[in-house]
Amino acid sequence: MPSLTLPPPPLRDIQVQLEYLADLPLYKTTKPLQYVPGFENDQRSTVCLNSGPPETLHDVRGAALDDFTLDDNGFKYVKAPTDFCDWNSQDAVAEIYISEMEALLRKEVEGVDEIVIFDARIRHGESSGTKAHDGLHYNPFARQVHVDQTESSIITKIRTLTELKADFLLSGRSRIINVWRPIRHPVYDCGLAIADGGTLKDSDVIECDRMRRDDGLFWDTMGVVKYREGYRWHYMSEQAEEDVLIFKNYDSDKRVKARHCLHTAFDLPSPPPYAPPRQSIEIRALIFTHPPPDLTPNPTLSRFPSPSPSRFSSSTPSSASSPATTPSVVRTLADCLRPNYPSPSPPSSVSPTPLTPSPTSSSITSPFPSSHPHAPPPGGASDLLPESFAVPACGVTVADVALLATEVARLRSLLGASARAGAEARAALERERRRRVAAEKAVARVREVVGWEMVEGEEEGGEDGVVEGGRRT
User: Fold this and answer.
1) Residue 261's closest CA among 292, 223, 312?
2) Which residues lie across from 34 on neighbouring strands?
3) Average pLDDT, whole number, for the chain?
4) 291-305: buried (b, 16+ CB within 10 Å) or exposed (e) per residue?
5) Predicted local confidence at residue 404, as pLDDT
6) Which residues contact 60 (CB under 8 A, 6 or more apart)?
7) pTM as predicted
8) What is the percent of the chain with per-residue pLDDT over 70, rounded to a whole number?
9) CB neighbours (10 Å) of residue 79?
């Protein structure tokens, strides 16, 4: 009996009004400001939102998903079912789900050399921006057209998370990719709309400073957006747990058509009666493509200052072949100085060194022992999930040499600072010595003066006594 082929479900393009930054004269002279979480309820926030006119959201359900690519559109939908269901545990999410998402990113994103997953958060309608007991984020829906972060904050985040390797990674291609998935049931009431990044203009995104509500300190920058005609919005009707949305928040490569895309939560019209509220999990990952061997700096990032003493040059790799530094020494130093980033296979001229087997590169463990000052607090109560580390393969890479050059520059800077501190300490001791000598001279002078006065008093009082109160005693 021939199998029955069902036609694809009809597309459900809908008309909705999305929330945009209000077109106020204030923003022509003043940078928008948000105090988070809950900026709508904080009078210090200057971000005002207005509903735009009705816009069409095109349903991708039943469409050819291959029509969308990250570089041309800034997003893509993929089928990625998961057996994971322990959504209330950060430890389980970090150990199992994040590993699945790293594998998914390596499969669906081109040019992946390294991945750093730095954030995971669950969203549902009843949340007000809280955390579970073990630190997992619970966030409300973001009903505002936006981009999660702008370039200035992204560069800072890369330097914070990758430390010594930052200059090398920033010389290549850097991307922030989000992986968004409904959990527990399909989306019936509040979906996620995504705008085609290939239709955006550079002027569409306005940088906004975000401050912490609790202490008023700077947090990061995000991109807010005013309405204009021409945005092309998409969504997936009844998006289920296996329907994963991958979208781009940043791309350092200016040659691609879509460097980011806009997104926002929105209320679906006419949800089914008694439909459960939407719940979803969002993973944010830094995706790095290593630079070519000449280590040419990325021109899009050259205007951002580096906190390291000096940027390595393209001539740095030649030092690895000098007679004074053998490949085995370089490999040993690299393994001691860096977190255990994965490395490619060794050159044929370098004999492999056996290493202790470790979990896969997606295992979520800290590189520091519990007693180390940089070790994460017990219980994992942190704003960021732990980073992913793996024991490196043997062999020397360009990244290793660049890492060593950066570390040498840093150590030289520390030695210079120590020398300056020593000189300042010696100068302070010399000043203290001079002060004490001057004080001793002053005391001696006082004693000398007092001694003369006593001698004069004895001469005036004679042999029988001293003069007191104008009479002899």
Assistant:
1) 223
2) 210
3) 75
4) beeebebbebbeeee
5) 73
6) 68, 77, 234, 235, 236
7) 0.61
8) 66
9) 9
Note if the bond before 317 is cis, omega within 30 degrees.
Answer: no
The CA-CA-CA angle for residues 150, 154, 156, to 5°, reads 125
> pLDDT category, 250, cuts 50, 70, 90?
very high
Residue 31 — φ and ψ, nearest 5°? -75, 135
Amino acid letter, 162: T
Q: Which residues of 20-30 are buried (b: 16+ CB within 10 A; e: fewer)?
A: bbbeeeebeee
Q: Are 315 and 380 in contact (CB under 8 A)?
A: no
Pairing of strands 14-16, 19-21: unpaired
DSSP 310-374: S---TTGGGGGGSTTS-HHHHHHHHHHHS------PPPTTS----------TT-B--SS-TTSTT
Measured CA to CA, the distance from residue 73 to residue 216 in angstroms comes to: 37
**Distance between start and end Cα atoms, the chain:** 142
* Beta strand extents in 17-131 (DSSP E only): 19-21, 33-36, 49-51, 55-59, 75-79, 114-124, 130-131
Angstrom CA distances, 105 to 90, 116, 154, 255, stand at 20, 11, 19, 21
Separation CA 105–CA 384 (nearest Å): 19
Q: Which two tokens stand for residue 145?
A: 């057209």
SS3 152: helix
Q: Are strands 173-182 and 243-251 parallel, antiparallel or unpaired?
A: antiparallel
Length of the chain: 473
For 32-147, strand residue ranges (E) read 33-36, 49-51, 55-59, 75-79, 114-124, 130-131, 137-139, 146-147
CA angle 441, 445, 448 (to 5 degrees): 140
Asked if residue 285 has pLDDT above 90, the reply is yes
pLDDT digits (tens, 9 = 90+) for 68-118: 999 999 999 999 999 999 998 888 998 999 999 999 999 999 999 999 999
Question: Cβ of 86: how many Cβ atoms within 10 Å?
Answer: 12
CB 290 within 8 A of CB 113: yes
Contact 149, 176 (CB under 8 A): yes
| Residue whose tokens read 């010696």 | 426
Beta-bridge partner residues of 235: 59
pLDDT per residue over 354-371, tens digit each? 434 434 333 334 444 455
